[in-house]
Design a protein that fits this description.
Elements: E1 5-8, H1 21-30, E2 34-38, H2 47-57, E3 60-67, H3 78-98, E4 102-110, H4 119-140, E5 143-147, H5 160-170, E6 175-180, H6 181-187, H7 191-198, E7 202-207, H8 222-232, E8 238-240, H9 248-253, H10 264-280
């Protein structure tokens, strides 16, 4: 079963607003077919230039984003939720401009925010907001994916079951789940079983070692992961989201306190070779 491999371009970033255009070539030269774009400032990116570079390199795009306290679509204040929906619209438009079939990440709640008010009310507002976001996604032809994350980074979706419950509440064909082996390693009883549980609702997949290193540099059971992906017929992208450098605001923001790779370019090449060998060929 053919699946294309990608790498999150923040692998090379030290600042979230660092230009992404030069990083597309690094991804291509490392052996990837897909470049994943962090759409944290979606209104500021040069989409035409980025798409032209992708086309010249024969590459495809995937996209991700994250909500924050000022763009929280679960917030009690409508104005905050509207800012969040505005951010998601800009990201979905950006994904469409780049030809990305997906927008993944923390698209349903702010990253690292743990409010003390009623979580049930937060879930209700989240579902209502996602109905609006899903309509935008459908109009643009982009699948909006909800990333299941560990308990230290979010509280709304820590398990596939919680994700499926939210999908059922919203009831839109334009919403899917986004799974990541780093998070599954913390929360899932069995990684492969969680993948099988997601089944046809799996829209995007991140490949990361349990320690945030490149795939293969930890104890994730990759043969079982591949078997589960094959079993559910997953044909989406396999994207390495490896944060291995402590440099700059990206390293600090992802809690990387020591170098997890000797050289970023070499690490990317090893990642591409591993994914092709273990999950594709």
């Amino acid at each position: 079963m053919t699946r294309e491999i990608g790498i999150h371009l923040s692998h090379w970033q030290t600042a979230w607003d660092q230009p992404l255009l030069p990083l597309i070539g690094k991804a291509a030269e490392a052996g990837f077919e897909v470049a994943e774009f962090p759409l944290l400032y979606p209104r500021e990116l040069p989409y035409r230039a980025l798409k032209a570079e992708l086309d010249q390199r024969g590459m495809r795009a995937s996209c991700g984003t994250g909500l924050g306290p000022e763009t929280d679509i679960t917030h009690p204040e409508r104005s905050v939720r509207e800012r969040g929906l505005g951010h998601l619209r800009a990201c979905l438009e950006g994904a469409a401009a780049l030809g990305s079939p997906v927008l993944g990440g923390l698209t349903y709640a702010p990253w690292g925010v743990f409010p003390e008010d009623d979580p049930a009310a937060r879930r209700d507002r989240c579902a209502d907001s996602l109905r609006e976001a899903a309509e935008i996604a459908g109009d643009l032809g982009v699948q909006l994916c909800l990333e299941v994350v560990n308990r230290f980074e979010g509280y709304l979706l820590n398990t596939v079951r919680q994700g499926l419950d939210l999908l059922r509440r919203v009831d839109s064909p334009y919403l899917s789940l986004h799974l990541d082996t780093f998070h599954l390693n913390i929360e899932a009883d069995t990684i492969a079983e969680s993948i099988r549980e997601a089944g046809p609702h799996l829209g995007h997949f991140h490949c990361v070692a349990n320690n945030r290193k490149r795939p293969g540099a930890g104890h994730i059971p990759w043969p079982a992961v591949r078997g589960a992906l094959d079993e559910i017929g997953y044909r989406g992208y396999l994207v390495a989201e490896t944060f291995v450098s402590p440099a700059g605001e990206v390293g600090r923001g992802m809690f990387i306190w020591r170098d997890l790779a000797d050289d970023l370019d070499t690490n990317a090449c090893l990642t591409a070779k591993f994914l092709k060998r273990e999950l594709v060929s």
